[in-house]
Amino acid sequence: MGKPNRGELVQGTLDMLILKTLARAPMHGWGIAQSIQQTSEEVLRVEEGSLYPALHRLELDGLIDAEWGQSENKRRAKYYRLTARGRKALAEETDHWQQLARAIARIMETA
Amino acid sequence: MNKFAKRLRALFHRRQLDRDLEDELAFHVAMNEQQGADAASARQRFGNATALQEKCRELWAFTAVEAWWQDIRFATRTIRNNPLVTATAVVALGLGIGANTTVFTVVSSALRFDMAVDHIERLVALHPGEGMATPMRTRRGRSTSSTCVTK
Fold it and tell me: What is the spatial distance between Cα B42 and Cα A31, in angstroms, rounded to a whole number?
């Protein structure tokens, strides 16, 4: 196996993590990255290079909506918020993820 | 609003899209800086902002169609700027197409084989000394019948 790549996201989970973060409250890109990093206790780090393209893709797909607003420090910031379709997609993704995690756990637990 | 409509809207608000992308990414860098990291390392962590902006922009754009439109505009500009080259190309193309058309028209009418008979597919050629009548080759292919028709 290759060298351990700490903080790198499991392939294909970024969309799910973004949707989950937005399910709590509307947030701007920077806030989403911070939230994922803090909630994962610094294990996961979201690269800006993949975060913003993902946000724009989700916006185009109608899973999230964007609105410009004022940030805490009075700057113009783009806030993303979950749409009804996004909420549905998140539920599906969550189910799928839990199934996958359980399956991997079962394999790893065998002696 | 569906995906296509969103992209179409972005096409007519290109400047705003660019400004929004720039602002969004600038906000991110500013927040990183505020978080304590010094400006240089914040920007370095961010990587190439222009490349990232371009990556996001491509999602909204009709890249292929826009590239095609740019090509057309470039071609039109070039043609206008080099009238002599353009004239040469037009004359060369005109002569070439003209010559081709002439040759094909002549050859086509010289080799045309169309007799004024009904059921040309039933026409056969008779060769003296041979036992069988062979179907005539016509423009419509070989005939399948060996019935001899006389004019």
Answer: 15
CB contact (8 A) between residue B56 and residue A73: no
The span from the CA of B127 to the CA of B137, in Å, is: 14
B47 touches A at CB < 8 Å: yes
- Show the tokens assigned to B67: 């590239």
Domain that holds residue B142: 114-151
A100: domain range? 14-109
pLDDT value of position B135? 65
**What's the length of chain B?**
151
Q: Are residues B120 and B101 in the same domain?
A: no
> Quick check: A60 and B59 in contact, CB under 8 A?
yes
Put simply, the answer to whether B55 touches A75 (Cβ < 8 Å) is no
Q: Are residues B149 and B118 in the same domain?
A: yes
Q: Is B33 on the interface with A (CB under 8 A)?
A: no
B52 plus B103 within the same structural domain: no
Q: Taking CB atoms and an 8 Å limit, are A57 and B59 in contact across chains?
A: yes
Q: Is residue B63's pLDDT more than 70?
A: yes
Residues of A in contact with B42 (CB under 8 A): none
User: How many domains does chain A divide into?
Assistant: 1
**pTM confidence score:** 0.65
Inter-chain CB proximity A77 and B32 less than 8 Å: no
Q: Is the complex ipTM higher than 0.90? A: no
Q: In degrees, to the nearest 5, what angle opens at C-alpha B126 toward C-alphas B125 and B127?
A: 120
